[in-house]
What we know:
The protein is an alpha/beta fold. It has helices spanning about 25-40, 50-60, 70-80, 90-95, 105-115, 115-120, 130-140, 145-160, 185-195, 210-215, 220-235, 245-265, 285-290; strands at about 10-15, 45, 165, 275-280, 295-300. Helix 3 (about 70-80) runs antiparallel to helix 7 (about 130-140), helix 4 (about 90-95) runs antiparallel to helix 5 and helix 12 crosses helix 13. The protein is globular, with a radius of gyration of 20 Å. The two termini are about 20 Å apart.
Amino acid sequence: MIRLRGSGSTQLLIVGVAHLSAEVPDAAIARGRDLLRAWRPDLIGIENLPGHLVVEYEERGGAFADFSVGGAPDARTGAAAVAGERPWSVWQARRVATDPQSSLTDRVLGWLLAREPDNALLLPWREADLREPARSFLARLETSPSERVRVGVALAREFGHRELIHFDDHAGVGLLDRMPDDWTSTDGSWWKHANLTTTRPPGNDTDHDHWLKWVGVTTPEFSEYLEQNESGSRVTFPDPTGAMRARLAQWRTRNLAMAARLREASGLIPGGRLLAIVGSSHERPLRAALAQDQHDLELVDLAGLENSQPSR
């Protein structure tokens, strides 16, 4: 449901993070999570694939088969845990999951069959009538060390949000099916080239406070490093096959598709605040895609959060 939050611009805060693992203690992300909480987002987006894309990628096969990123493995596992319990397609399941008139059990099952299990965590799922496979799966997912759960789910729960926006999108990955047979070897050579021709700026290696890393990504020096490392180096790499240029097109296409999903999500909260949590290499491409001619969209400076007190 669209909920008007105010007459001003819709604010978008993109937080580029180094993907979290179990080695990162909760204390290391506490300050960053507290500052994001103080900003009080009305909606939160995470770097997960929308459930219908998980299904589409399975069905397309090829380079899409057994997709191992964007939360797809958990999405498939969650759906398998409740397979046969309801006769819903991925779209039918989503409609049930987002309908507040549905029973709690059906809403939880709906999110699992809609391939968006992180959204099931926003419900009091332990009170639902679930079989053991589903309970075990959700209990495990709830302890995930990823930023999707430790930041996205955690904050959305606190604010009583009904849904996390899934804005990952691997549009362009179909190019992989048209690549030369030895393109993976070329890709490995490019990676070595990228690391030799780009220099990582100092000052972003702290492990005790990841807020410093998140802010560090937004500095001109580190932003340029990521841009050249991920994109520019593919153009300068000597590759007569054109495979690395195709990989560059794939990367930029993906970011444009992700930006489009965020722009669509902003329409759910006109005048509100949208928080997008994403891998650090995406921060600059997303900002570039959304910085011009959006009229009612304001990109928020992450570094400014520490010295600002949002008025709501």
